[in-house]
């Protein structure tokens, strides 16, 4: 963990090691009483394709399963 300070224009500079590890683009998310920086990939679609490359089901099948699980959890 490291500290960073905003400059007089409100800019935050991340340490070089973090920029090299996580990149230059981030989503800023408010979490209760804090903020979280979430790295954004250069090509988010490529990241999703890589993440789901081993999934054999169609999007429709996954959606149907998620619906069924939600209904079961809700006590249908």
Assigned CATH class of the largest domain: Mainly Beta
Estimate what percentage of residues fall within beta strands.
15-25%
Radius of gyration: 19 Å
What shape does the CA trace take? elongated
The number of distinct structural domains comes to 2
The chain-level structural class is: alpha+beta
Query: Which spans have pLDDT < 50 for at least 5 consecutive residues?
Result: none
What does this structure look like?
Strand 1 and strand 2 (34-39) form a beta hairpin. This protein has 3 helices and 2 strands, in the order αββαα. The chain has 2 domains: 1-40, Pemi-like Protein 1, Chain: D (Ribbon); 42-76, no CATH class. The chain is 39% helix and 16% strand. It has 76 residues and is of the alpha+beta class. It has helices at residues 16-22, 44-51, 59-73; strands spanning 26-31, 34-39. It has a two-stranded antiparallel sheet. The mean pLDDT is 89.
Quick synopsis:
This protein has 76 residues and is an alpha+beta fold. Helix content is 39%, strand content 16%. The radius of gyration is 19 Å and the shape is elongated.
